[in-house]
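Figure-free illustration: sequence to structure, shown twice.
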Amino acid sequence: MRNHQTTLISLSLLPVLVLLLSNTATPANAQQPQLTTDFYRTTCPNVESLVRSAVQAKFRQTFVTAPATLRLFFHDCFVRGCDASIMLASSNGQAEKDHPDNLSLAGDGFDTVVRAKAAVDSNPQCRNKVSCADILALATRDVVNLAGGPFYQVELGRRDGRFSTIASVQRSLPGPDFNLDQLITIFAKHGLNITDVVALSGAHTIGFSHCSRFSKRIYNFSPRSRIDPTLNPQYALQLRQMCPIKVDPRIAINMDPATPNTFDNAYFRNLQGGRGLFSSDQVLFTDSRSRAAVNLFASSNVAFSQAFVQAITKLGRVGVLTGNRGEIRVDCTRPN
């Protein structure tokens, strides 16, 4: 496994990075959960190695493990907070995972958490001591690192939610056609700022999307232009070749056409060249308010890694259940 290496940032980039990251503090009125990196030091001291071994085994089977788990964490935290409610199943199809916005979540993400939970509970000292929410957070860090991204300390101490409703997903997740104002608004609800928007969007450096999520950009953008003018023309034609007008739901397109299996800053260089797959990706470069962050991250993988770690750590604090709230699920797919 590749560990994150500390690298000095070019002095010419430092002032810009300081400016971008100076507004990353959580708002004073936001919830301050009691999460710590050593939460399980006495109850399950080897929890991280247990989770990591299970995640590594799954990752060796399929690379999809990485983007699927990362996306699962994002979708979980953005809806009811980071409480693993996305994992809960229902007999009547009315859980979070049943919402149309979640139906495209790859099964490998769910399977990664289930396997890691089983690995943790196979240790008698740890059995039923570690929440599914914390296992998902740890697994997310591990897949990022396995794909070539940074290794970072994960805050722990979350408890699992008991509820999961399809209605709670409504208007909770950013859409592929969001403009920057919409992105800023939906992220701000969780104490995340514009730099966090750009950094977390960098997760699209791995993973794939189905044609239906962006086909309007290449076939029917507007009465004046069938192709989105912010798209690189050559890239648009390539997408047309891969995605026929009659959308085939089985076709998947890499989010990052340059290095699709590496967690790196190529995503931002793609945006500079008009190769953002979603409108919500490309707008980060076309809008002057976020362009400086895109340019910085495109020029420095270190700057991107630092901003991503800070943003995903903040995301991991959203709406968490701690103390006596929530529970430690025996089975991640159903409440106790």
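We now fold a second protein in the same way, so the two outputs can be compared directly.
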Amino acid sequence: MSYSPPDPPHEVPADIVSKLDDQPPEVLRQVARFAEELAEYHEREARLAENEESNQVEERPEDLPDDVPSKATITVKEINDNRYYYWQWREGEKIRSKYKGPVDSDN
């Protein structure tokens, strides 16, 4: 562990770096968790939009529950330092989720 502050990525705007630099460690950890969840949300939105655009009818996976549409994708959510798979799909303007199971820690 270095005793000097880390260099911020060039892609992060200076005003964000400045605001983060003034925050206590617990707030920074909360921001990191939020940023990770927000990144997953944006990636999921992009995948769902891409799937809607392609309108490809794919074969229904065997483990897909009856109440989950075939257009659903699998995403990973972290809750209390545990990772879980969820089926997710769009219904109009809303994102719907259904629990699938824990992420195997051996992978």
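Summary for the second example: The beta strands are 73-79, 82-91, 94-102.
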